[in-house]
Amino acid sequence: MKLIKLAFFLFFLLVGASFAVLNSAPVMLDYYFSTLELPLSIVLIAFMALGVFLGVFACSGFLLKLRHENSTLKRKASLVHEEVKNLRTIPIRDQ
Questions:
Q1: How many C-beta neighbours within 10 Å does residue 44 have?
Q2: Is residue 94 part of a domain?
Q3: For the chain, what is the radius of gyration of the CA atoms?
Q4: Is the pLDDT of residue 12 over 70?
Q5: Is the dihedral of CA 34, 40, 41, 45 positive or negative?
Q6: Number of domain units in the chain
Q7: How far apart are CA 43 and CA 82, in angstroms?
């Protein structure tokens, strides 16, 4: 499995490097206070990384809620398991 992950990593690294070489034309990035001239590949990668960061940030509340629910359910399952274990050890009394 590690070998497959390494192969995917190297493949995407190679694709990213070729992308950067093919898109090396400078572009003018004009924001309100100033302008900046950067290679197109750097601008695209930076904004894609920003999009990933914003996407993770947007999902973080949902993920935290799921983690909390998961821990609550694990705690309840542990209590039920202990209760069943205790009930199995109680001797049965005939009436």
A1: 15
A2: no
A3: 27
A4: yes
A5: positive
A6: 1
A7: 57
What number of residues does the chain have?
95
| 3-state SS class at 84 | helix
| Cβ 26 vs Cβ 40: under 8 Å | yes
Domain assignment present for residue 95? The answer is no
Class of residue 20 by CB neighbours under 10 A (exposed 0-12, middle 13-18, buried 19+): middle
Residue 52 belongs to domain spanning: 2-89
Give the residues across from 30 on adjacent strands: 35
Beta strands in 1-95 (DSSP E): 26-31, 34-39
pLDDT in tens, 26-59: 899 888 888 999 888 888 888 889 999 999 999 9
Q: How far apart are CA 87 and CA 91, in angstroms?
A: 9
Distance CA 48, CA 60 (A): 18
